[in-house]
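Hi D.,

Good news: the full-assembly prediction came through. Inputs first.
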Amino acid sequence: MTRQPSVSRRRLLRTTAAGAALGLAAPFGPRQARAAGTTIGFIYVGAKDDYGYNQAHAKGAAALKGMKGITVIEEEKVPETVDVQKTMESMINLDGATLLFPTSFGYFDPHMLAMAKKFPRIQFRHCGGLWTADKHPPNTGSYFGYIGQGQYLNGIAAGHATKSRKIGFVAAKPIPQVLLNINSFLLGARAVDPAITCQVIFTGEWSLAVKEAEAVNALIDQGVDVVTCHVDSPKVVVETSARRGAFVCGYHADQAALAPAKYLTGAEWNWANVYKMYVEKLLAGQTLPNFTRGGLADGFIKMSPLGPAVSDAARKQFEATLADMMKGSFAVVKGPLKNNKGDVVVSSGQAFVETAIELESMNYLVEGVIGSTS
Amino acid sequence: MADIASRPLATDRPAPSATARLAVLRETLRETLARRAEAVVIPVAALLVGLALFSLFIAALDKSPLQFFELMWRGGFGSWFSFQNALARAAPLLLAALCVALPARLGLVVIGGEGAIVLGALAAAAIAPPLRGVPPLLVLPAMALAGMVVGGLWIGAVGALRHWRAVNETISSLLMTYIAIALMNHLVEGPLRDPASLNKPSTLPLDAAYRIGPLPGLDVHWGLVVGTVVCLAAWVLIDKTRWGFAARIVGGNVRAAQLQGLPVARLTIGFCALAGACAGLAGMIEVAAVQGSANASLAAGYGYAGILVAFLARHNPLAIVPVAILLGGVEASGGLIQRRMDLPNATVLVLQGVLFVATLFSETFYGRFKAFNPDLWKRRD
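Then the structure:
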């Protein structure tokens, strides 16, 4: 059973009028004509004003809203079940979307893949690094950013701000992406002072406000004075830390407004760049890339402006490292490096730059991180 | 007074003539109709009152209630695609609602179906990989059985705690849900983890042969049929068997049931276990038809949505089917409402909440309206 995306009367009028006016309709065929009035769908797993993961994507989507001929449609709080499949289908069938960005990691398999098979003429791009050419359909793809770099810079700011030499990390789940962030945060801090340790607490869920607040309180009770996190919405962590008098580094989006005095900096996604790239390619009639990756140098991620509590020394080291990273190929993880059980995980002379594939299966916490992956 | 005197009295009534018999028949029919009408009119009125209240809410947000209901119709029921969307979302709600409705007939408010769904799904996903190579006709029932047994044990334990230790079943089932989800996360991230599932810990994926496909010609999986059949079976159990009758007596008055020598322990634990088995089966279907492996996405709130469905259906298994489809349609239209009206997702939750409260409130009206209650007519006479 194949189904073509239905085109509403208004859309048809608009696209044909625009296409005819530009004289594009005839030489480039229907696909180009349609691109003149393209509808792009964004799907979020949480609230789009969550000060975190979903807000970062919604901000990226908002950057497209002013673009000529682009209609952005959004749906928030869509669970990773048949619901998201139906949402994609509804966006295609009822709104005529031709490019979809299902942004939650869990949307990929089986949900987005099932829809991509059903709608081979619709383009799907998923946030995460899961796409591989031999396994997945050509109308799908992945995009992701090397945000561990941002956590390393967070670590530098934290390393200068801590007095107790104890910093803390509230993490959702012990998966490679999160472990890389924790390790990067500590390694950044240790670039300031090698005696610093980082206590990590896993909450077990991507969004569980009560446990996140408990974790922050437990960390601060143990003497931690700078906190960061990797959960879907850092709002609770940022606010609780600031209320308890600890400094805080942000994640996903800019949370400075939640703790103006205590916010040092933050590792933010810069999805506006990525989404604009896709849309410009689409409007130019080019094929969309299937696999897209980038870091600070590529404008995929950025740092929140440094807060008022950041010292001059911290600012200097932060900016110098940032400048290094902007050149590309900066190795946060390099040998000799032990895990926190004492085993060597990176031998001397080995260095993993941000693009290294080894980082994507990270299963250890480095020496200096207090906590366990299981 | 003359009116009363001219009426024939029951005692001096001669052998009933044909017209008198017709009159009695008509009276009986009227009484039956009145009682039946109550079961339809009150819920529909509650629905309308709920919608009216919700319209005020929408109007207070400076949006058009008319547009809201128009989009709800279009997104949930107005086209073949939309109706299938509603059916697809209704499918898991049927079994989830039974997990609430069955114990409710014994007067128990079990709200922990979510836990049984998650663990049933996990059991089904865990049992399939070791059986690789066995024909699907054997593996699928084995998966269903595994899900039902685990779900049955989980909610059965709630019934046992209730009966033997007098632990409030509402609280225990809710708390056990948190334990169930934590247990699922632990097993999925630990012993049962597929090593290849790096950033989304999951069990090993099911072979394609062990997946449940869509219904022929429809874009809805078989869970809809299974759920409907189980709802029918549950109705037969409750309304047409002596176990169901006994359960309803326990629900009416436990002491009276005990005095009559009814096996209250077996009924309580048995109905809870059956309810859990329904939820466990829902979990198995979710794994086999949708997810393909067990992971954190399973805790999607179907168990909680089932509570709403069961209460709106007044715990009648037959009513669960239309109510689930109605709610599936409401949820299906939620996305369109977000996209077209720029309302947050919570709007649909507010609607569900208002309908829920209106229905609960309407419970107090049963038997109070003279039009629906023949006993009240007679009292006047």
